[in-house]
Amino acid sequence: MASVVLVGLMGAGKTTIGQLLAQKTQLDLIDLDQKIVADAGKRIPDIFEEVGEIGFRQLETQALRESLAQNVILSTGGGVVTQAVNRMLLKNCAVPVVYLQADASVLYRRVCGDNNRPIAKNLNLQGFQDLAQKRADFYEEVSDLTIKTDDTTPDMVTAQIFSVYNFGEMNQLLS
To answer: Which residues contact 155 (CB under 8 A, 6 or more apart)?
Structure first.
């Protein structure tokens, strides 16, 4: 089973924090979006174009199930919480789910112009703020811990996660 799961809107730092946690715990990192790309053999924009968001979300649920069964650091995609089945999987997993949260305007600046994010590429700031507001309750629903990433460095966020969860003990229990 995963040792920690990171959730949050795109741009919150899930991949970066996941990489740092993986290095410090000596566990592998699964970035859910990268897993979907590898499994499908296509870029995310191509998946969206071919099967739409619904088809992408089905691939995401399958990848989430597989990833939660492994002893890894798991960085999810920003929209993983939009599906009730995924929220159930996250709420029922036996490891901490950490919500990396930041102000929508900060996140928008971080992802603006990234054409590899099909949901965000057509949104202006107001649309992005609406998306953040719509998903916020879902992130809160599945998370055990919320960490603000607006004005913190990735190292500070990683240290905060380590201060709450003793990964050394956790990994010994999972072995």
So the answer is: 20
pTM of the entire structure? 0.88
Q: Which helix (H) or strand (E) holds 67?
A: helix 44-68
Where do the domains of the chain lie, and which CATH numbers do they carry?
Answer: 4-164+166-170 (3.40.50.300)
What's the pLDDT tens digit per position in 90-144? 999 988 999 999 998 888 887 776 666 656 666 788 888 998 999 999 999 999 9
| Phi, psi at 145, each rounded to 5° | -150, 135
78 is in an annotated binding site: yes
For residue 57, say whether it is annotated as part of any ligand binding site: yes
DSSP 16-50: HHHHHHHHHHT--EEEHHHHHHHHHTS-HHHHHHH
Find the angle CA(36)-CA(38)-CA(43) to the nearest 5 degrees. 75
Asked whether residue 12 is marked as a ligand-binding residue, the answer is yes
Q: Has 117 been labeled as part of a binding site?
A: yes
Has 11 been labeled as part of a binding site?
yes
33 is in an annotated binding site: yes
* pLDDT (tens digit per residue) in 29-66: 999 999 999 999 999 889 989 999 899 999 999 999 99
